[in-house]
Amino acid sequence: MPFPWLRRSGSAETGRGGRRRGARAQRRGPQRRGDRNDANPQVDPRAVAERRHRRTGFGIGAAFLFVIVGVVAFGYYQEFYKPPRIWAGSVNNVEFKMGDLVQRIRVLQGVNRYQGGQVNLSTVPFEYLQNLINAEVLRQKSQSLGINVTDEAIERELRRQFVPTADPGQETDPGQLEREFKDNYGSFLTATRLSDSEFRVIVEEQIAITSLAVLLAQDIEDPQQQVEIQWIQIPLESDILANDVAKRLENEDFTRVAQELNTPGQFAGTDGYVGWVPKGAFPNFDDAIFGDAEEGIQPLEPGTISEPIFDNDVFVLLKVLSGAEERELDDRMSLKLTVELVEMWQRDALAAGSEAKTVRMNFNSRLYEWVTDQVFITAPRVDR
């Protein structure tokens, strides 16, 4: 072969340019490899271990942070988000949640505080849930009972409560009365932290229950059999034991002991004299006062004293002063019979709804505790 070097360096057509490019490529290759080796000539094991430890620490910290955020979020859900949305009760297709119950207690609490009363949180939550259910049952049955609460009736009741009463013979200015009504009503809403719509719902329910009472009172017989009684009431939380009082009454005068121990109330003063009582006015006392022929229970004879009877957080010792006589009802007993009839109607309606599964309630100790905590937190501070 005349030119054997062409096989190593390229063909004759490649020329000098090709050979120069090949030579430059050969020189650049070793230089790049040298550059890479110079940049990281030797790996430090300690630096690698530190980087690995940092990455592990960041991972553990992120995991702990995730757990903490999860716990906080779950606690918020359990304590604040979930409880108000828990189902509390229902009447047909109308449901109440725990938040609705707290709101209702807050509304009535504001009204009671404004009027100088207090709310007993040991019994109120469940009672108010029953009140919500009772009000809804009555609302759904109002049409069949002929009860219709209009906006005009609510407005009249509001004005009855908040329009000032003029003295007899005093001239009144309608414009001035309207301004005073708005001022009084606005001050009431501000003091109790209620909205107009919230209080109008309460007024609507009050009118409905009053209408039911008027309807049921039509069935009360007058005159009817009544018994004259006297009693001594001993509160459940009192240090005085009812059985000890009963032993004292074996030898001491009833009136004198009543003047010493009796708790005065709506129906009796310090001497414990109640007066003439019809059957049904105090259902828990009916067996002692009137007896029960079906159960073979004889009524107390005049001058005799009953054993202690538990009734609404008090123990009561009854003394029959006069036997049954047909007498006209006084206003107190007529009202008491009406109240008992309304409560009986509500109990019967709840029992019928529960049996038909149209009325349901959901309440337990955990929900009770949450409700009482929320009511305490949101309780309005009213200075009356």
Verbal overview:
The chain has 384 residues and is α+β, with helices and mostly antiparallel strands. The chain contains 13 helices and seven strands. Helix 4 (98-114) crosses helix 13. It folds into four domains: 6-33, no CATH class; 52-81; 89-165 and 172-218 and 338-378, Triger factor/SurA peptide-binding fold (Orthogonal Bundle), CATH 1.10.4030; 225-328, Roll (Chitinase A, domain 3), CATH 3.10.50.40.
Parts with pLDDT < 50 across at least 5 consecutive residues:
1-14, 30-34, 76-83
Q: Level of helix content? A: 55-70%
The count of domains is 4
Number of strands: 7
How much of the sequence lies in strands comes to 5-15%
Trace the largest sheet across and list its strands: 4-3-6-5
Largest sheet: 4 strands, antiparallel
What is the radius of gyration computed over CA atoms, rounded to a whole number of angstroms? 42 Å
- Characterize the overall form: extended
List SSEs in N-to-C order.
Answer: HHHEEHHHHHEHHEHEEHEH
**Separation, N- and C-terminal Cα atoms:** 126 Å
Spell out the blueprint of helices and strands.
Elements: H1 6-9, H2 15-39, H3 45-81, E1 87-91, E2 94-97, H4 98-114, H5 124-145, H6 151-162, H7 174-192, H8 196-217, E3 224-235, H9 242-248, H10 254-261, E4 273-278, H11 286-290, E5 309-311, E6 314-327, H12 331-356, E7 359-361, H13 365-378
Helix pairs in contact: 4-5, 4-13, 5-8, 6-8, 8-12
Quick recap of the structure?
The chain is an alpha+beta fold and 384 residues long. It has 13 helices and seven strands. The longest helix has 37 residues, at 45-81.
